[in-house]
Structure formats: structure tokens, C-alpha cells
Design a protein that fits this description.
Blueprint lengths: L4 H25 L8 H16 L10 E3 L21 E6 L2 E2 L2 E2 L2 E6 L4 H23 L5 H14 L2 E3 L5 E4 L35 E10 L5 E7 L2
Antiparallel strand pairs: 1-2, 2-5, 3-4, 6-8, 7-8, 8-9
Helix pairs in contact: 1-2, 3-4
Length: 228
């Protein structure tokens, strides 16, 4: 028997809460630090996720992005970098909890650069603006929500670095759902209502992504969570 929207959303919120607890544990252990490579950070995260959270499956190929790589998106696979003393670093976690996907992103500044700290502060504010628009307009389209995110970024003095502003999330693996892929993304090509059901008749549940990049393109940061 298929689950209701409320039941599916409850499962996703539970998965997200555990993923956020994983982020907190990563911070407490100081994994993100100057002199460490992205790969070293990722190996520590995978080990912690399995040992303390029982996670053996992750649906992201890269989960730590530092320096110039923090301007990259999930689809990019640049060379592994070492975290520098004044870098902006983001973590993009995709742990699978009992067949439910979590997808959370958070950014960190290694150093005291005020502009980088300002960008990190704006990431969560940008997400709040996106979430308010999603919750406040039952008919909002993927294209409209993406435009709102990009406009908001420019108003704050940043560029929006993502080719999408989010995607659906649900039972693992959501990527195998049938149909046009733009239907499952918050981007300019998705002119349909985000609340229209998927081809299986289920409500689509959404992750919102805020990816900000400095105007000169020298650094970037990332934040994401459930929109509901």
C-alpha cells in the first residue's frame, strides 16, 4: 500500500533530521580544516556516518567542495583540492536512511574573511525566501521559483551559481522515475506546477538549493534542505 503525502513527508523529515545530526557531528569533530584534502574529509564523513548513524549508502559522488571547487555544482567532478587557510568549504550530504533520501548542504568559512562569512549568512536567508515563496503560492512553477532564487541572489550582491534551484526527493533512488528530467527539477525549463503529481500519481516533494557565488567569481557557497 502506497503512503500518503503526509506519511512520505514525515519519513523525509525524519531522514533530514538525522542528516542534520550528522552535520553537527562532523562539525564537532573538526573534519573541515585547513591542510586537509576534500577526499580526507569525505572518508572521515563516510566512516562517521556508518559507525554512528548506520549509513552505508550515499547517493552523492562528491560531498566536500573547497576553495575553487565550492563554485562547482553536483554534476561537476573537478580535481580534488586541499582546504586552504582562508577557504570557503561546503558539504553536500546525501545519506540514505532506511531507503529514504536525505539531502542537506551547509557551508563553512575557514578563516576570517568578512565577505565569505557574509555569503554563508545569506545562504540560509536565501533558502528562507525560496521556502516562503513555495509555501505561499500553491501554483508556483519550477521556473518561477528558480527565477525568484536568482533574483534574490542578485539583490544581495551575489550571483546564483546553480543551474537548478532544487529537485525532488523521496524513496531511494528518485532518479529512476520515468519522464522528462526537468519535471523533477527547479529550473527555467520546468514551467509546470511544482505540486503536480509525478507519473506514478504521487505528490512530488522538493529540496530547495541556494548556491551563491561572489560577483568576481572567486568563491562560492551552498545550502539546501527540504522545502516543505
Amino acid at each position: 500500500m502506497s503512503l500518503s503525502r503526509a506519511e512520505r513527508l514525515a519519513e523525509l523529515h525524519a531522514a533530514e533530521a538525522r542528516a542534520m545530526a550528522l552535520l553537527d557531528a562532523i562539525e564537532a569533530r573538526g573534519f573541515v580544516a585547513a591542510g586537509r584534502t576534500e577526499r580526507e574529509v569525505e572518508k572521515d564523513i563516510y566512516a562517521l556516518a556508518e559507525l554512528d548513524f548506520g549509513v552505508t549508502e550515499h547517493w552523492h559522488k562528491r560531498i566536500c567542495r573547497a576553495g575553487a571547487n565550492a563554485k562547482c555544482t553536483a554534476r561537476d567532478n573537478p580535481p580534488v583540492l586541499t582546504i586552504a587557510a582562508d577557504d570557503l568549504v561546503y558539504l553536500d550530504l546525501g545519506p540514505v536512511f532506511e531507503n529514504w533520501e536525505a539531502d542537506v548542504g551547509r557551508s563553512y568559512v575557514v578563516g576570517d574573511d568578512p565577505l565569505k562569512h557574509a555569503l554563508v549568512a545569506d545562504l540560509s536567508r536565501g533558502f528562507d525566501a525560496m521556502q516562503a515563496a513555495y509555501q505561499g503560492n500553491q501554483d508556483i512553477t519550477g521556473a518561477a521559483l528558480y527565477a525568484l532564487a536568482t533574483d534574490w541572489a542578485e539583490q544581495q550582491g551575489w550571483r546564483f551559481g546553480g543551474v537548478i534551484g532544487g529537485h525532488i526527493v523521496g524513496e531511494f533512488p528518485h532518479a529512476h522515475l520515468p519522464g522528462e528530467k526537468d519535471f523533477y527539477r527547479i529550473n527555467p525549463a520546468n514551467t509546470g506546477r511544482l505540486r503536480d503529481p509525478d507519473p506514478l500519481g504521487q505528490d512530488r516533494l522538493w529540496i530547495g538549493e541556494i548556491h551563491l557565488v561572489s560577483v568576481d567569481g572567486s568563491f562560492g557557497g551552498f545550502y539546501e534542505r527540504l522545502l516543505d
